[in-house]
Amino acid sequence: MFALKRIVTVVVMVYLLIALLFLLFPALRTSISDTMGNGAPGPYQERDFFIMLTWIGVVVLGLHLVVENLDSTLLRRNVAQQDNRINELKAKLYDVQQPIGRPAVATTTDPAVSYSTATEARRTDVPPATTPPTY
Q1: Does residue 63 belong to any structural domain of this protein?
Q2: How confident is the model at residue 47, as a pLDDT?
Q3: Is the pTM of the predicted complex or chain greater than 0.70?
Q4: Distance (Å, rounded) from C-alpha 50 to C-alpha 44?
Q5: Of 24, 71, 111, 122, which is most buried with the most CB atoms under 10 A?
Q6: What element of type H or E holds 59?
Q7: Is residue 119 part of a domain?
């Protein structure tokens, strides 16, 4: 795909240089259109030459667009496959590093607060906390 992309890019660059050459040098354009002409008078030969140049440009630039989009799609697909493979390897590494006897989820601990929590309030052996008097 890389070689096809490079070849199409070179063809597009050459086409653009040739088209620029024909646009900037009218004498060259006239001589080329005379040699490729179909026997029509001068202005019609140049018109036909530019129509032919335009159609060649449409085909070449369309090919370039298709190849670029195809290359972009293939690259995105390749990156997605590599990301999936990386995630699988991370998951395997995580599974290997987990100890066998203990669960993977951390156990909960009691919060370090100075007031009674809901679990302490449910216990019957702990006296309820008193509130300070208000003045």
Answers
A1: yes
A2: 79
A3: no
A4: 10
A5: 71
A6: helix 42-97
A7: no
Residue range of the domain that includes 54? 2-97
- CB–CB of 12/19 below 8 Å? no
Q: Is residue 117 part of a domain?
A: no
Assign 101 a pLDDT band (cuts: 50, 70, 90). low
Would you state the pLDDT for residue 117?
64
For residue 20, what are its two tokens?
């620029």
- pLDDT at residue 88 greater than cutoff 60: yes
In sequence order, the 6+-apart residues with CB closer than 8 A to the CB of 104 are: 98
**What's residue 29's pLDDT?**
75
- Here the tokens at position 70 are 């195809």
Structure tokens at 110: 């009691």
Cα 64 from Cα 11, distance rounded (Å): 9
